[in-house]
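Feature request, filed as a ticket because there's no other form

It would be nice if the structure record came with a short human-readable summary line next to the tokens. Right now we just get the raw output. Example of a typical job, pasted below so the devs can see what we mean:
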Amino acid sequence: MTTAAKAASAVAAASTASAGGIYFGTDLLKSKKTITDLIREKNPNKRLITSTTVSDDAWKKAYKAYREENKEKERGQDSWKLSDWAKPNGDIQEVNTTAEFINKCKSNSGLEASKDNDLLYQQVLKYCTRATLVSDLIAENNKGRRLLKSSGQGDDNGWQTVWSTYKQHNSGKTNDTWSLTDWSGKKGGNELPTNYKTTCDTKSSEEAFKTDDEKYLNVLNWCTVPA
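Raw output as currently delivered:
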């Protein structure tokens, strides 16, 4: 091969490698997703905490996890270098979180990660999420339905409708699915058992992340009405 041919070959190889590098680099960029999207994909059993109230129970648990993880760290050395960070003393208890911590969770969850073992992804998963609940599945998968709540007003007809459905499902049973108070005395009438509404509240707050979960399906059938 002549010197000129060798040079041309080298240039072509370099161009190919360069092009390949650009291609793979672009491919890697395309594979990145926001941490929010990755959590939805990789950890459907978790949901980002959306409350902005520092006294929210979910935030208290999350902030406790952060403080436990960084209990030996001085200010400026904690994972997210919070400006109001103070090294915990003694046993770490659940306390109100801070607005800064909530905002940090919000901003970090919007950043991108390429895989679910990235450090920041793991931190957001640990410090900024709670368990997925039946109520989450109801809201996300049933846009045309509304979850009834015991504290709601003006839903008498709705409660009668779901109570009727519940009675039909448990017809002929001595022991009903949810073991309601006064089941034996109320199953033949229109009056709801005393704890039917609060049972809907309790059941909708249970953990579930699959739409074929019986806990989710029961609440969907017995505690929701058309929106």
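Something like this underneath would help us a lot:
Confidence is low (pLDDT under 50) at residues 3-28.
Residues 32-131 form one domain.
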